[in-house]
Amino acid sequence: MYRIVLGAAIGYVLGSRAGRERYEQIKRWSRRAADHPAVQGAAGVVNAQISSGLKKKFKR
Hints:
Layout: H1 2-18, H2 20-35, H3 37-58
Helix pairs in contact: 1-2
Protein name: YtxH-like protein
């Protein structure tokens, strides 16, 4: 999930420097990548691991 956010931020900066058309291309690519089933599955696994870790940390 962290990598997706980082990639979106990098895409934003590069797109803004390259002009509006290039920015729109990068934005479309990043949305397609974020919607890919493999990315969604990985995000689900990471989310479950984080939730599990938080439950263990705050368990009394």
